[in-house]
Amino acid sequence: MSSGQSGAPAMRVLYGATVFSTALLLLLVQPMMAKALLPWFGGSAGVWTCAMLFFQTGLLAGYAYAHWTARHLSPGAQIAVHLLLLAASLAALPIVPSMRWQPPPGEGAPLARLLLILTLSAGLPYLMLSSTTPLVQAWYARRAKALLPYRLFAVSNAASLAGLVVYPVLIEPLIATRRQMLGWSAAYAGAAALSAVPALWSRGNKPVESRAGEPASLHDRLLWIGLAACPSVLWLAMANTLSQSIAPVPLLWVLPFGIYLLTLVLCFDRQGWYRRVVYRWLLPAGWVLIGLALGAQRVLGLPWILLSCLGGLLICCLFCHGELALRRPPVEQLTTYYLMLASGGALGGVFVAVLAPFLFTGYLELPIAVVACVLLALRFVYRVRPRQVARIALTGTAGLIAAVQMDAVLAGSVVRVRNFYGRLQVSDEGGVRVLSNGPIRHGAQFLTPEKRREPAAYFGTDSGIGRVMRFFGGRPLRVGIIGLGAGTLAAYCQPGDTYRFYEINPAVIRVASEQFDFLQQCPQTAVVAGDGRLSLASETAPTFDIFVVDAFSGDSIPTHLLTREAFALYFRRLTSDGALAVHISNRYLDLAPVIAALAADAQRPARLIRSAADPARSTYDATWTVMTANRNLLAEVTSVSEPLVLKTGFRLWTDDYSNLFQVLR
Known about the structure:
The protein is an alpha/beta fold. The chain is built from 20 helices and 12 strands.
C-alpha cells in the first residue's frame, strides 16, 4: 500500500477541512466588506458590483499565484513562499477600513478609491484565501497520486454556498458590522494556521505538473474562459438589476450568487446533474424566464420576479458549469484549468462593473449574457456548426442594436445616460417631461409654459411633502433636501426662500440643470455634490425649517439614510418646530415600520400621508412620512394622515444593522 493511500482518510479530512474553512471565509468577507463600505459611497448598487469586481480579480490573482508557484517552484520553495505570505497577511488584520480612507464629499470617480480601500483592508488575506483551494488540490494530487482532486473544488463551493446562507440569516441580522469584521479577522488567523499544515505535509512530493503530458491548447483555454465568463456576467448583471429595482442590500446579491455557487457544487461533485439531452428542452425555458422577469417588472410582484430570475439563472448556470465539468483536464493541467476559470469570472466582473457603464446607456449586460448563453448552447447542445453560430451572433448583435435604438425612439427619449450610480432617462410623454432611474420614474415637469411651475410626480400639492410646504408657506424658509431628481421641490420656492439640495450622482445634477428648469425658477438654490449624509455632517451651515429625504436608487432609499445615526443628524439640522419629511413610496418594501421605529427612538411624533395619482396633474401615488414637534402642523395633517404604528419586536435600524426581511411586502 502506498503512503498516499495509507493516510488517505486522515489526509482527506485535513485537506477537506482546510478547503472548507478558507472557502467559507473567502465568501463571508465579500458581503461583509461591501456592506461596511456602502454608506461611504452613497448606498449605490454600484458599490456591490465594484466590490464583486475586486473579489473576482482577487480570486484570479490567487489562482495565478497558485499556478505560477506550482509550475515554477520546487515543493520546498513553494511552501516557504506560501508560509511567508501567510505570516505577512496576518499583519493586515483586522480588516476594518480606516476612517481616514473615507471619500471627501463630492469626490468623483468612486471606483478607484473603492478598489484601493478594499485592497488595503483585505487584499493580502483575500489573496491567500483565494490561492488555498487550487494549491491544496495540487498538494492533494501530489501526495495521493491515484486520486483525482476535483471533488475538493465542489467542497470549496459548498463552503461558499454555506457562507451565503449563514450571512444574511444569522450574521447580518444579529452581529454589528464592525464586530463581524473583527470576528472574521480572528477566524482568518485560525484558518491561516490550519492551511499551513497541508503545506508542510506535502514537502518532498514530486510536483504533479512535472509529469509528462500535453499542455492545454489555446482552444481549450479560450473555451474554459468563455464558459466561466458567461455565468459570471449572468449572476452579476442579475444582481445589479435586482438591486437597482429593489434595494442595494446583501440579500439581493446573495440569492443570485448562491445559485451560481450551487451549480458549481452540483456539476463538479458528480456529472448526473447535467445531461445535454435534457437541456435541449430546459434551456429555452430558462431564457424565457429571464426575459419575462426583465420585460414584466411593472406587473409582476417581487416573489414572481425573483422566481423567474433565479429559475432562469439556475438553468443557464447549470448548462455553463456542466459543460465546464465535462471538459475537466488531466491533473497535470489542474492549476491551468482553475486559472482559466478565474480569468473568465474576472472578465465577467470587468464587463459588468467597468465596461458596461461606459459602453451602454441602459442595462444591456444581462440580455447580452443571455445571448451568449444561447450561442454556447447552439454550439454544444444543439450541435450547430461554428460558422452558423457566428452568423447567428452577428445577426443577433445587429438585432440587439436595432431593438435598443427602437426602444429609445418609442420611449420618446431625450437623454439616456449611465454611470456608477445607475441609469437615467429623460423622455417626453404627452406634454410632460419625465425623469426615470432604471424602470422607476423620479420626476416630471409639464412642457407648456403655463404649467411648468406646477409640482408633479410624487410632489403634488396633495402629497405629504406638498402639505408640509403649504403649511410653512408665507414666510422665508430654509429647506434642505437629500436627493435632487428633476429638482421638482424647487417649484414650491417663494421669494426669500433658500433651497439646498444634496445629490451624489453628477449625472442627475447635469440632467436637472439642463433638461428641467425648476432650479432656475428658485434664485436662492444651491446644489451640493456628494453623498447627502456625509456632506451634511461636514457642514456648519444654519438649520433648516424643512428637511426632506428623497434619495432614491432605483425603487429604494439607500439604507444608510434610514438609520438612528442618520436621523440624529437630520434632527440636529432642524429648527425646533421644523419638519422632517421622508419619501417611502416603494413597490417591494414597506418602509413605514422603519420610520416608526426611528421616530419612536427620537421621541418625535410621526404621521403617514398617502396621496393618490392624478393623471391630469401628472402626479403619482405617493407615500410620505412627516416627523415634527410642531403641534399646529400635526393638527393640519391629522385628517389626511394616519399614525405610524411601532411594530412589536421590530428592531431599530442603525449603521451596524438593517434587515430587508423585516420590510418585504
